[in-house]
Fold:
Amino acid sequence: MDEGQADDVEDRDATSTSTDRTDAIAIGSVHDRPDVSFVIPTHNEETYLRGALASIAALDTDYTYEVLVVDGNSSDDTRSIAREYGATVLEGTDSTIARARNRGATRADGEWLAFVDADTELRANYLTELLGYLEANGLAAGSSRCRITGPRRAKLMEATINYVFPRLEQPILPGFNVVVHRRAFDDLGGFPDVPNEDTAFSRRLARQYPTGYCPAVLIESSGRRIAADGLIGTLWHYLSLDIERIRHSGGYGSTP
Structure:
């Protein structure tokens, strides 16, 4: 998703009263407090968002959940698509994806926070398998295997996520597919507002809590950046972000 999105203007339909928030939970079973809150940051995502929301609506699970779409002033049909699927829409102009995700988490009611992107599609067993895996193994957060759609060169990125990230001493949990317990999320203060915020968040989280990957779960994410920028351009993009992340590390005590 694009990273052009500040904090305080919210959808008038998504008010802070408990009645309105309960009414907005149309996807999944309705409870006063859902087990899981999906948080999806968006900016002009009409092409992909419907697929993501449809996959969430099709989850086969006994876990209850809500969906919050944190929109950054989209000029297309992103917000109307979100409302069509019963999601709570939070409007704003968040300047970074970290701020958008954190704002969504602030408004979320779930015991677990599931961060996915607008171009992420889940399989029906996603919550049952992934959350069951985290609970059974006493993990505070986790991710899963992914399939990157699009050009064949996207398979290098896919292999890195599936076979390298899980084996790191501090596993990297990609922001487009990560579930984290609210207590752990709040203890860290959410995603740090630095480039490659998901890498920084994963590293800091793994220093304090056990995290991991569930091998039984597979999600799909688009390879649109690779299609647009090529493999070398995409690798350079993330390398540049990581260099900036390290430069920002002074504000966090150690390298994020």
